[in-house]
């Protein structure tokens, strides 16, 4: 079957599975030359394109898109949170990453989420000052622009300031997410004033302006990152964390953040995780994100099978089993590398993958597998960490991912977040942005590795990825979705590389997320499908689908020199894929 025929089949299958009108299942795809961008928001893609058209590079355009997403997608991301950016620098032919994950305030201890020795209620922890980490986004943007950009904050924030000032039209997805979070938002006066009308979610079609966020961006445009980390905005953040602006007598936990926590925040420039898969070089995010390592381990396991020659169900069974094994290792070993000596080289070794592969039964699904022992495959075996066999922690599934390239060949793959939908629920008074609840990404109780500690960054799953082939960019991929980010990136790579699907079909395909739990997470409508039945025959079990999984964005660099941007056709509303010069 040709690639385009595969695309049609998958689109049809998906629309039948999800009972949606076919037109809605059409993935936004744009092919052409010059720069390209794929985001989940039309306004954000337009901001990136405007900066590219003004001569900005991919890094400039990425910050412009991110700032606009902070306005149009404020429940997923923004300057109140943090993220991970992977950048391919065309001139140097190298990939670097910027870790601007939130850090725990200096007041944090491993007992911060315990009361009387017991873990506190997750939702109560989320909607509180105690869940807020020191935001890293502005520092990350600063590092990106200073080191690799060609423009200043003033230029790249201009499109977002315009959207925040003039407003944007509230979509069904936006209104739905607000409705889902009414309870959380109602507890905070600033948040209710911005996103609720008489205590109810803003409705689709409303024009929403955010002059306070425009003000915050203008201050950063004028004074740079210092405007955020020192002075009145920093004070407003610290006050909001320590004395949350509650409404209606709501009782929420306060945090303990100081001006020094903000002033001391640093982003980290880190070497990417490099792995290989069937002739591709994959560059992913290193710790404190578990994303790059876990995707790489699962692909190393899968590399030992000729997936494309197998019946689809057999290959998908192997995909689920490889993911399960990689997750067991992720949960046991991975955390902030400045606090924990994780056995990264062992986990990434092809020999370790071969040992893990030997555990897979080609015919039967396994359940709750134990972590492997990567130490035998590690250069430095001096500090062994006992594997932790703790049950899967609760992790939410939100965030945004997008990707940009420019005509020089620079590429950005960027995932950033405020953690849950609407983060902690606290909008900073006078500045219009939501504070994250990233600290709930720590395990609430020990033992190590991912326990809360002062200054530590909680383990993430974000997996922005850039793939090279023959030394040149081949594709980018990434997704939101908490721990399902890892499986969405993994599955999309398998769909594209092994099953030969075009990227739009690879992105569109129903998602299956196996994370070594009791059952595999699937999307609404999957349960009764032929695909589900074929996999059930191996013993796979499905979790009741709560929601769609992820909202991926990708760029493919075609052999003929053109570029194809791909976004989502139906998840999280509809995405937006644009190129500078369209091929049509
Ligand atoms: N906090 C999550 C992480 O870092 C991302 C948020 C989400 O996608 O839900 O992995």
TrEMBL record:
One of its GO terms (molecular function) is glutathione hydrolase activity. The active site is at 399 (nucleophile). L-glutamate binds at residues 101, 441, 460-461, 482. One of its GO terms (biological process) is glutathione biosynthetic process. Cleaved by autocatalysis into a large and a small subunit. SUPFAM superfamilies: N-terminal nucleophile aminohydrolases (Ntn hydrolases). Coiled coil: none annotated. It catalyses: glutathione + H2O = L-cysteinylglycine + L-glutamate; an N-terminal (5-L-glutamyl)-[peptide] + an alpha-amino acid = 5-L-glutamyl amino acid + an N-terminal L-alpha-aminoacyl-[peptide]; an S-substituted glutathione + H2O = an S-substituted L-cysteinylglycine + L-glutamate. This enzyme consists of two polypeptide chains, which are synthesized in precursor form from a single polypeptide. Belongs to the gamma-glutamyltransferase family. This is Glutathione hydrolase proenzyme. The lineage of its organism: Bacteria, Pseudomonadati, Pseudomonadota, Betaproteobacteria, Burkholderiales.
């Amino acid at each position: 079957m040709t690639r385009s025929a595969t695309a049609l089949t998958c689109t049809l299958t998906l629309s039948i599975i999800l009972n949606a009108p076919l037109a809605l299942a059409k993935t936004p795809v744009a092919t052409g030359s010059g720069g390209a961008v794929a985001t989940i928001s039309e306004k954000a893609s337009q901001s990136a394109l405007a900066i590219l058209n003004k001569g900005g590079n991919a890094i400039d355009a990425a910050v412009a898109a991110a700032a606009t997403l902070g306005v149009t997608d404020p429940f997923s991301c923004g300057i109140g949170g943090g993220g991970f950016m992977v950048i391919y620098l065309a001139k140097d032919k190298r990939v670097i990453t910027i870790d601007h994950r939130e850090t725990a305030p200096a007041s944090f201890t491993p007992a911060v989420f315990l009361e009387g020795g017991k873990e506190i209620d997750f939702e109560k922890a989320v909607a509180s000052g105690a869940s807020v980490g020191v935001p890293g986004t502005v520092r990350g943007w600063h590092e990106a622009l200073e080191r690799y950009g060609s423009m200043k904050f003033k230029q790249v924030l201009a499109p977002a300031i315009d959207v925040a000032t003039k407003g944007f039209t509230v979509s069904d997805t936006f209104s739905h997410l607000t409705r889902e979070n009414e309870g959380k938002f109602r507890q905070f006066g600033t948040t209710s004033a911005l996103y609720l009308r008489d205590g109810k979610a803003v409705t689709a079609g409303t024009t929403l302006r955010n002059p306070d966020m425009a003000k915050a961006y203008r201050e950063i445009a004028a004074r740079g990152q210092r405007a955020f980390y020192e002075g009145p905005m920093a004070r407003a953040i610290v006050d909001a964390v320590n004395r949350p602006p509650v409404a209606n007598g709501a009782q929420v936990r306060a945090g303990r953040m100081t001006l020094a926590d903000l002033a001391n925040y640093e982003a980290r420039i880190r070497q990417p995780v490099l792995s290989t898969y069937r002739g591709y070089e994959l560059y992913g995010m290193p710790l404190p994100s578990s994303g790059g390592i876990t995707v790489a381990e699962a692909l190393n396991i899968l590399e030992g099978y000729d997936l494309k020659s197998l019946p689809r169900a057999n290959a998908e069974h192997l995909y689920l089993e490889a993911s399960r094994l990689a997750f067991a290792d992720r949960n046991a070993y991975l955390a902030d590398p400045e606090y924990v000596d994780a056995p990264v080289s062992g986990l990434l070794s092809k020999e370790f993958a071969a040992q893990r592969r030997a555990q897979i039964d080609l015919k039967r699904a396994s359940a709750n597998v134990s972590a492997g022992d990567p130490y035998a495959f590690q250069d430095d075996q001096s500090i062994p960490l006992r594997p932790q066999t703790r049950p899967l922690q609760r992790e939410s599934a939100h965030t945004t991912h997008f990707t940009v390239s420019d005509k020089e060949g620079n590429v950005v793959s960027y995932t950033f977040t405020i953690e849950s939908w609407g983060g902690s629920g606290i909008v900073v008074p006078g500045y219009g942005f939501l504070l994250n609840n990233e600290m709930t990404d720590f395990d609430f109780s020990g033992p190590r590795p991912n326990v809360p500690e002062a200054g530590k960054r909680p383990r993430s799953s974000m997996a922005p990825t850039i793939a090279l082939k023959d030394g040149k960019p081949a594709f980018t991929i990434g997704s939101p979705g908490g721990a399902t980010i890892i499986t969405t990136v993994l599955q999309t790579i398998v769909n594209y590389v092994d099953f030969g699907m075009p990227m739009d079909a690879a992105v569109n395909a129903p998602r299956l997320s196996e994370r070594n739990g009791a059952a595999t997470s699937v999307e609404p409508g999957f349960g009764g499908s032929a695909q589900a039945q074929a996999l059930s025959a191996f013993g796979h079990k499905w979790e009741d689908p709560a929601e769609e999984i992820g909202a991926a964005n990708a760029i493919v660099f075609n052999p003929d020199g053109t570029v194809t941007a791909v976004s989502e056709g139906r998840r999280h509303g509809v995405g937006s894929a644009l190129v500078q010069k369209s091929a049509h």
